[in-house]
Amino acid sequence: MLDERKVSFSGVQPSGNLTIGNYLGAIKNFPEFTEKYKCFYCVVDEHAITVRQNPAELRRRTYETLALYIACGLDPEKNTLYVQSHVPAHAELSWILNCYTMFGELSRMTQFKDKSAKHADNINAGLFTYPVLMASDILLYQTDVVPIGIDQKQHVELTRNIAERFNQVFPDTFTIPEPIIPAAGAKIMSLQEPDKKMSKSDENENAVVRILDDRDTIIRKFKRAVTDSESEIRMSDDKPGVSNLITIYSCFTGKTVSEIEKEFEGRGYGEFKLAVGEACANRLAPVQEEYRRILADKAYLESVMKKGAEEAAYYARKTLSKVRRKIGFVNL
Ligand code: TRP
Questions:
Q1: CA–CA dist 312, 76 (Å, integer)
Q2: Distance (Å, rounded) from C-alpha 278 to C-alpha 218?
Q3: Annotated catalytic residue, options 28, 38, 115, 221
Q4: Tell me, what DSSP letter sits at residue 328?
Q5: Per-domain residue ranges for the chain?
Q6: N- to C-terminal Cα distance for the chain?
Q7: Of 57, 86, 194, 205, whose CB has the highest number of CB atoms within 10 Å?
Q8: Is there a catalytic annotation at residue 197?
Q9: Which residues are registered as beta bridge partners of 82?
């Protein structure tokens, strides 16, 4: 069976805390992406343990993440959805690539510097070699494109450097991947500090709306959203709070900015915020319902994991055996 599509690889941390920023910026566009690329979505439990995890919680979140992605429209029949630790080739290639990655390169990774400042009591070797495992994820599938947030760009650049270095010694081993940073997707800002991006790890819960927040919580958070001292509902650089709400409303309703400005002409912020909250809650309700249905069906989720792991392993094995042969390991 010949698949002409280019390969897209995406790693997702096992966390159920995804925000409407993740939803509107990336997840919502997944089905479209599937038409264009052969997509791998990997829940990266091995990356997760570079910081301390509660085991029961990690396991639960692995199921939750998978359920949420499926609920958001990722079809496991059309995409390869799986869990990283179910495909041992990731860890195997990672060891090999460790030997083709320089200490100095890893020392320069800003995420390592940030995380070792944040977890000063646990600066383990895995935290340091995290980007090598990520490079292995990507390179195992001869990936063409890697959709990521801007914070992961440095890791994809390192992946390219490792692949180029390896290919220089052993030609034609890896495809060199391109990062793609979804620009078309809406950029959703914090509800409390609208000049900052909405972040799933924000300490102020009122700043973030999560895909799994219930209706009352969603409406309350929008009611408390920071605006400005005027009363006009208008998109403008000097009105970041109101502009952000307009963007969100537009994404959830499909209405254009000028339609929205007209709809709320002469009406106050209170009324507008309520409308945004309701539009958001209405749109997320079916996703949440589907999420709960899928999450309750553990056997189904495990069958998805199993099928995904088998599919992924098939492609991973091809690359790994090529690498092993090239570097001089005995393949039996
Ligand atoms: N490091 C990524 C993050 O923290 C997750 C990730 C792991 C990833 N492996 C990947 C992303 C491969 C893209 C490709 O978000």
A1: 12
A2: 8
A3: 115
A4: T
A5: 7-181+298-327, 205-292
A6: 27
A7: 194
A8: yes
A9: 42
Q: Residue 130: its pLDDT value, please?
A: 98
Q: What is the pTM (predicted TM-score) of this model?
A: 0.91
Q: Which fold has domain 7-181+298-327?
A: Rossmann fold (3.40.50)
Ligand 1 centroid, distance to 44 Cα (angstroms): 7
Using a 6 Å CB cutoff, which residues line ligand 1? 9-11, 13, 44, 47, 134, 137-138, 146, 148, 152
Kindly report, residue by residue over 258-294, the tens digit of the pLDDT. 999 999 999 999 999 999 999 999 999 999 999 999 9
Fold match flag (7-181+298-327 vs 205-292): no
Whole-number Cα distances in Å, 72 to 15, 23, 66, 149, 292: 15, 8, 10, 19, 12
- Kindly state the tokens that stand for 79: 């995409």
Ligand 1 atom with least separation from CA of 134: 9
Length of the chain: 332
Instruction: Output the pLDDT for position 282.
Output: 97
Architecture of domain 205-292: Orthogonal Bundle (1.10)
Listed as ranges, residues in the chain with pLDDT below 70 are 1-2, 16, 182-186
